[in-house]
Amino acid sequence: MSLENRVALVTGAGRGIGRAIAEKLSQEGAHVLCVSRSEDSCGSTAEEINNSGGKASSRALDVSDGSAVAEAAKSFINEHGKVDILINNAGITRDGLILRMSSENWHDVINTNLSSCYYWVKNLAHPMARQRWGRIVNITSVSGLVGNAGQANYASSKAGMIGLTKTLAKELASRQITVNAVAPGFIETDMTSGLDEKTRELILKNIPLKRLGQPSDIAHAVDFLCSERAGYITGQVFTVDGGMVM
Ligand code: NDP
Question: Of all atoms in ligand 1, which is nearest to the CA of residue 11?
């Protein structure tokens, strides 16, 4: 098991991609700190991990609330002595064309998807730097690479995460902390469950591998980036999308 004795924090661990990442990192031996908005959600992931022989705990909080993140980061460090791995995965969509996009929908998405990453890194990079080892993986999106009509807020937040990833990779490299991003295409989760049949068909036409991705497809990429084997990879965006964006 490649992550034995590591402590990994996964945001949005209650469902979908985050849950698959939490399960995968725990299978590799990490103690996983599962964070999501509702305790029901992250609590059930932690319970399932503990029931299957892994180690996990949960904490419900709103990642767009800077003081809640600071308080949680402090208590994780107090309790576990360290956080080795940070996976910024929590995210939301509030889609709409720019002419009709409310200021609330703009700020909610930017704060939840992007500002949250700043809050976690601000509070965890220092303890990670002190131990001279760390992994940060930000879950962005192909929308952040190529844009998507109806997603000005979401695509901007995801493009912002890429800029943040590359900057942090440069700033934290001397402390042996690698910072990478994974850009999923269309993955079957609650986030994409609302797609109608026509849209699904249209999407599939543009995916060379002819299927939507599974949360485990993303978890495998994240697992690799967290491992020792990926120790010489930093500042990169790994696209995991069945070949949709090349
Ligand atoms: P889901 O909607 O299935 O799950 C989102 C998770 O994020 C939930 O656990 C939710 O908590 C948590 N979350 C949302 N807002 C907050 C908040 N303010 N504070 C704390 N936790 C929060 O999403 P996916 O699994 O589909 O997506 C995960 C990530 O992958 C997102 O960043 C998304 O943008 C990205 N992505 C997804 C793609 C897809 O096709 N599914 C494609 C490209 C990128 P709770 O369970 O408590 O509600």
Answer: 21
